[in-house]
Amino acid sequence: EAGTDENLRAEALSSLAWVRGNWGGDLAAGATIARDAIAAAEAAGRPRLLRNALTTAALIASYDGDPGAEAVFRRALELGSAEPPAPGDRSARIAFAHERFWRGDWHRADALLTEEREEAERLGDEGSVARLSLFRADLEMRRGTWDAAENHIAQTLEWASGYWQTKAFALRAAVRARRADP
Questions:
Q1: Which of 27, 60, 83, 86 is least buried, going by the fewest C-beta atoms within 10 A?
Q2: Per-residue pLDDT tens for 41-57?
Q3: Packing angle between helix 92-102 and helix 47-63, nearest 10 degrees?
Q4: DSSP, residue by residue, 145-177
Q5: Which one has a higher pLDDT value, 3 or 9?
Q6: CA–CA dist 126, 120 (Å, integer)
């Protein structure tokens, strides 16, 4: 469907790779599609599209245990704000922060989430700031800092609805269960 529009092609391939590799767990297919997305984004000459494609490829590579994943994340981060994000873009910082805290690198994850929050506050992106409270709660739970996790969950529940509210309630239940609170 993307035809000859390299922008649309890069966007579509990046989204397909994300769904296929990161959500669907088909890492080999996701990695192949992500490489095509990177090539299409490079051909389009759009930093935003390349940042999305690289973020997708990096997370898939990380799931696959590829030690080169961090270098791909760094490349995505280097693109920074060369072109502002669009709705639905994947944040390289958030994806890399999640990857880091899944691997127990609390310090790096904390720094990445802090940078992302500062950027969201600078841009006035209240939705991102709010979601970052929930991501921070998840990090605090993994670190075993239960009071901090509960505080971030409470901040999230002040604004959350739908998916985000459900996720916040699930995390709050996990914190309370950890504390043996019936």
A1: 86
A2: 999 998 999 999 999 99
A3: 10
A4: -HHHHHHHHHHHHTT--HHHHHHHHHHHHHHHH
A5: 9
A6: 7
